[in-house]
């Protein structure tokens, strides 16, 4: 590629809009550019996306350097994020059969929602890809603009072509007499210094500047967003992020999913306000809950022998989680008096005698229970949370909220057995009135169950760092303005021009006070 040469003799890279040396417009129709229409974006420097367009890398760079592409990617991600909130995500679905739950709760739309993968959208490959593409776009957009801008601002020359000065949006000029140059430049230097401008002089030219940091605000925003996105994507690394929900019964020890820890629920307690001490604002009938608490023991699992090493004991309260390193366990739910086991009796209707009793663990029932006289009770079917769908038995979840069994009583006289139904809360004597053997509920063991939210997020420091950097960029971009003033004297004419990246009204107001000291009049609108 050949360089674009300015009339001042400086060779500029292809794609440069304003001469790097004197600022003169390099457009063929430069004379037709009106005051205020000078392209000062990125100081007229050549951007890579506008210069190189031949190779595949160039095309990829040019694609992601487009602000329109970045906006479209963000809008697509925003719409997808909204769609993901229409129905609950799978992790919050209280059922083993997720697809059936969506269909049962939301009909055909729930079925479509699940089959499209929207139930686990935020961890899906395409959603993660969208976030990655936004990050790539932010990086390339920033580099494509900040590099030429930094070079242009770092290498600013004091002397500028009068065409550059006169075509600024804020500009004025007047004739000066012989010997007045030094006085005019001295007065302008003093007044601009009072306004906290950094003033540089080169012969009969001045460059006054302040607030350059404002130009870096948007790019600091981009850095913060990129770090924020990296932190979000790091949640996909195994062991970095965990958000699980477990139900733990009193006396039960269970592994915490996604960790090498186990937790034992020693006691789950629900406390109620004394009727005389209840808050007046709680104008409710019945008992008012004061606090939920769970007494737990945290264990570390041994990878070799699977043993458990006690780490700590603690009491988990609402808003006071168990904390250990990066692990947090919150009190999030409570179920009072939930069944954990049933004591059943086997009765012989012919003799009217009780053959014996057996205990059924509702979490892990035995397949067969054998009595001393050789009679066996087999569990053919078990529905922890019994329900009927299309007149067929099913279970809503794996939690024993309404346990139901189909038993088969096998005796030496009747080896094929006879079936009996036992459903919590229902009297089914009519179904088994012709059976010789009857299975009846003798007792039920109830325990409290704690719903615990298990969380781990090692990416939070990275996410907060990104958010903090982003806010710094917002403050810099909003509360500072990059203001520059160029002054040049040529052919006994004083040329005065100024530019800012925002708040033109404030710039004009400030510079009218400066221009008055040398008899310049700054118009309200650019001349045409």
TrEMBL record:
Pfam families assigned: ResB
One biological process term from GO is:
cytochrome complex assembly
Q: Where is the signal peptide?
A: none
* The ResB-like domain, residue ranges: 67-511
InterPro entries tied to this protein: Cyt_c_bgen_Ccs1/CcsB/ResB, ResB-like_domain
The answer to keyword Transport applying to this record is no
**GO CC aspect terms:** membrane
The main location is membrane
Does the keyword field hold Transmembrane?
yes
**Can you say what this protein is called?**
ResB-like domain-containing protein
Q: Which organism is it from?
A: Novibacillus thermophilus
Q: From which lineage does this chain's organism come?
A: Bacteria, Bacillati, Bacillota, Bacilli, Bacillales
